């Protein structure tokens, strides 16, 4: 037998010469954008597309600031979700404002919308 060892580090799922087949609960959408601006101090966000994310799921709201705002992305948990899947109530208020709007630059419309992503996944 000829075994080749390799070091992959801690917290790594490694596979060599095999097939990794992961299955989880499907969702209609794992990423969307804000439908309107979410102000700092707000407990709710309104999404552009409906989601079917479970309550207590972890989400991320991306920053919409300038190049020095990279630490303004925020991770929150869903405390409640509207029946239409467009409004999420968060477990704690937002620390930063996240834009969800269209701005006119000369004759061009520019969408400035924070991305919202589902971080919790159910893989078995």
What does this structure look like?
- There is one protein chain.
- The protein is mostly beta strands.
- The chain has no helices and 8 strands.
- The chain has strands at 31-33, 44-46, 58-61, 74-81, 87-90, 100-105, 108-113, 115-118.
- Strands 1-8-3-4-5-2 form a 6-stranded antiparallel sheet, with no helix packed on it.
- The radius of gyration is 19 Å and the shape is globular.
- It starts with 30 loop residues before the first strand and ends in a 6-residue tail after the last strand.
- Structural class of the secondary elements? mainly beta
| End-to-end C-alpha gap | 32 Å
Query: Could you report the average pLDDT, rounded to the nearest whole number?
Result: 89
Q: How is the largest sheet built, in terms of strand order?
A: 1-8-3-4-5-2
Strand content: 25-35%
Topology:
Layout: E1 31-33, E2 44-46, E3 58-61, E4 74-81, E5 87-90, E6 100-105, E7 108-113, E8 115-118
Antiparallel strand pairs: 1-8, 2-5, 3-4, 3-8, 4-5, 6-7
């Amino acid at each position: 037998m000829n075994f080749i060892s390799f070091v992959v580090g801690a917290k790594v799922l490694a596979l060599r010469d095999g097939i990794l087949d992961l299955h989880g609960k499907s969702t209609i959408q794992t990423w969307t954008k804000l439908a309107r601006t979410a102000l700092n101090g707000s407990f709710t966000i309104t999404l552009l597309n409906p989601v079917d994310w479970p309550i207590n799921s972890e989400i991320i709201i991306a920053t919409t600031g300038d190049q020095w705002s990279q630490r303004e992305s925020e991770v929150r948990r869903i405390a409640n979700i509207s029946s239409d899947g467009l409004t999420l109530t968060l477990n704690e208020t937002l620390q930063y404002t996240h834009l969800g709007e269209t701005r006119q630059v000369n004759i061009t419309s520019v969408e400035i919308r924070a991305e919202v992503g589902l971080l919790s996944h159910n893989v078995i």
